[in-house]
Specification:
- This protein is α+β, with helices and mostly antiparallel strands.
- It folds into 3 domains: 120 residues, no CATH class; 97 residues, Phosphorylase Kinase, domain 1 (2-Layer Sandwich); 118 residues, no CATH class.
- The protein contains 18 helices and 14 strands.
- The strands form 4 sheets. Strands 1, 2, 3, 4, 6 and 7 form a 6-stranded antiparallel sheet that branches. A 4-stranded mixed sheet has the order 5-11-10-8, with helices on one face.
- Helix 6 runs antiparallel to helix 8 and helix 12 packs across helix 13.
- The longest helix is centred in the N-terminal third of the chain and has 28 residues.
- The radius of gyration is 22 Å and the shape is globular.
- The termini are far apart.
């Protein structure tokens, strides 16, 4: 019998997700009516569903793994009683995935860097790799003795990405079970838009160079320098550090530990709001694996595929919007949105509607220091991840794509910081870096 095409096999693996969920759900229901404990059965079901979902997504890499990483940002919204199995599966997905065989790694490096590629390195370990969404990273020693990270794109990543995302759209209702408050369809649409950019390693290397130049003197952030690049390979300085997932889902152990968490939170919010002004760029892929706590206390930033160019910085009207949301000025907010053309059919939306739609963004700006934690994110629930759960209001809004992207990235960081559990001077940072907020 002829072996089925690779794309068909991928679709079969993805197709096993809803079938497995449904089968386990039916079995759990049967055990429940026969006397099984409801809480215990729910926990068992959550563990098995999480294990299957993220095992499949991680194995398939590409768009499937990318979706898993995107879902991890919103993990803080999952109810506490079901969170633990998803937390462990998500962390596992971010840090582990099946690696390419060494023979395939050698072939790709020869294709991208030339047959004499081994002469560029003093040492290169093809057998050990760290997973990325559309590639893997090897630790090596450059010919001049520097430790480097060699990022290699998986062969056929472009075809796999598009195939995965087409298939995953059919399972959006099942994926909704993982993060009940998230708009999974919108999340998939956004991931699809960013995929073409992430496949272009030449553009990613240019983004990394631009960030490195703009943030070279930042005492709290380090961007590794690009040493060399090719269409499917990026070689940059190696950063040794702990991923932010080390702090997620674990309570603070001491005052020193809490100060470290607060330092991380303040650094990340400052980096996010300042980079459009300093670099003309916005890093649009907030998840734990893309940032490291370095031994010297700085934050190392990785992966520059999902980057939006904002050469003029954050638009001034967005700062004014955030200020009015923070102050609860619904009437003035609605008037501004209408004046800027952000509201279509005005009779369909009220001041109360727009405050509810954008309200979560104002919470951290109403206090001198704001405590990001799971209770905060769970209270926001679907309103945050659905970018305003009110469908009627959403249909009436017409935010430009770069506004929408910026606010979605803010949501991602709000969720990550809530997982870390930290206190941040968000208002002062926004006052400093967001034009229009102080108007």
């Amino acid at each position: 019998m002829t072996e089925p095409p690779k794309r068909v096999r991928r679709n079969v693996r993805l197709g096993s997700i809803p079938v497995g969920f449904a089968t386990r759900g039916a079995a759990s229901w049967a055990r429940r009516i026969s006397g099984g404990d409801r809480t215990e059965l729910a926990a068992q079901l959550a563990i098995r569903n999480a294990d299957q979902l993220f095992a499949v997504l991680g194995e398939l890499k590409g768009g499937a793994m990318k979706l898993g990483q995107a879902l991890s940002v919103y993990e803080a919204l999952i109810p506490n009683e079901l969170a633990e199995p998803y937390q462990q599966a998500l962390i596992k997905l971010q840090s582990n995935a099946p690696a390419m065989p060494a023979k395939e790694v050698h072939r790709l490096l020869a294709e991208q860097l030339g047959r004499n590629w081994p002469q560029r390195f003093k040492e290169f370990d093809a057998d050990n790799a760290h997973a990325a969404s559309i590639g893997q990273v090897h630790r090596a020693i450059w010919h001049d003795g520097r430790e480097v990270a060699v990022k290699i794109q998986y062969p056929g990543a472009d075809e796999a990405l598009l195939s995965d995302l087409r298939t995953l759209r059919r399972f959006s209702r099942v994926l909704q079970m993982i993060v009940p408050g998230a708009d999974v369809r919108a999340l998939l649409a956004e991931i699809t838009e960013r995929m073409a950019e992430e496949l272009d390693y030449a553009a990613e290397a240019d983004n990394q160079r631009a960030f490195a130049a703009a943030l070279a003197d930042d005492p709290a952030v380090r961007v590794p320098k690009v040493i060399g690049s090719a269409p499917k390979v990026i070689i940059s300085e190696w950063l040794e550090g702990a991923p932010l997932s080390r702090f997620a889902h674990r309570p603070s152990t001491s005052e020193k530990d809490q100060r470290l968490r607060d330092h991380i939170g303040n650094t990340m919010i400052e980096l996010h709001f300042s980079s459009p002004a300093r670099a003309g760029l916005l890093h649009c892929d907030p998840h734990h694996g893309n940032f490291r706590l370095l031994p010297d206390g700085r934050i190392g930033m990785l992966d520059y595929g999902a980057v939006t160019k904002i050469p003029e910085g954050i638009p001034r009207p967005l700062g004014r919007i955030l200020r009015l949301v923070a102050e609860g000025e619904g009437e003035q907010l609605l008037e501004l949105l209408r004046a800027e053309g952000f509201v279509g059919r005005a009779e369909r939306v009220t001041a109360e509607d727009v405050l509810s739609f954008l309200g979560a963004f104002g919470d951290p700006l109403r206090q001198e220091r704001f405590h990001y934690n799971r209770d905060f994110m769970q209270a926001e629930g679907g309103r945050v991840t659905n970018f305003g759960g009110d469908f009627r209001t959403a249909q009436s809004m017409n935010l430009p794509p770069h506004y929408l992207m910026f606010l979605r990235v803010v949501v991602g960081w709000m969720s990550i910081l809530s997982q870390i559990d930290c206190t941040v001077a968000s208002r002062a940072i926004v006052q400093r870096w967001v034009p229009g907020f102080n108007d």
